[in-house]
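Below sits the subject:
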Amino acid sequence: MRPAAVSGRLTRVALRCLIVDDSEVFLVSASRRLCAQGLDVVARTSSGAEALQLARQLQPDVALVDVRLGSENGVELAQRLVATAQTTQVILVSSHSKDELGELVADSPTVGFLPKPALCAEAIAELLVTAPRGTPRRRARDDGRRQSSEGEAS
């Protein structure tokens, strides 16, 4: 997080974000939604190799990585991002619930998991605030309280 990224009751969130998902519809809708909520979406991609390159080059505060990334494994990509982009916190996202993904999410070195319907700037900030930088702590927001009418393909 950048200095003063989160203040008070999470009224202002100024995080630099990379989104990695195999659905172009989701990439566009999530970017639009998160930008409207105050995040700086610095890049979005559907490729694991490009995600690694962008994370090293742009050093975002957070990378949102789809668990099921088309022909690639999003959990494996998350592991590589944690190892190579050490200033970037990684959050796994999916249209599936954490319960459906089981051990894949539980065993990952990420700071947490968000189901796509709950994806919002505040939920991201909450996960990052509770996870000290450089110390992955797995938490999940699986309540689906925040529903999006935008595309939520996995």
About this structure: The two ends are 26 Å apart (CA to CA). The CA atoms of residues 42 and 146 lie 23 Å apart.
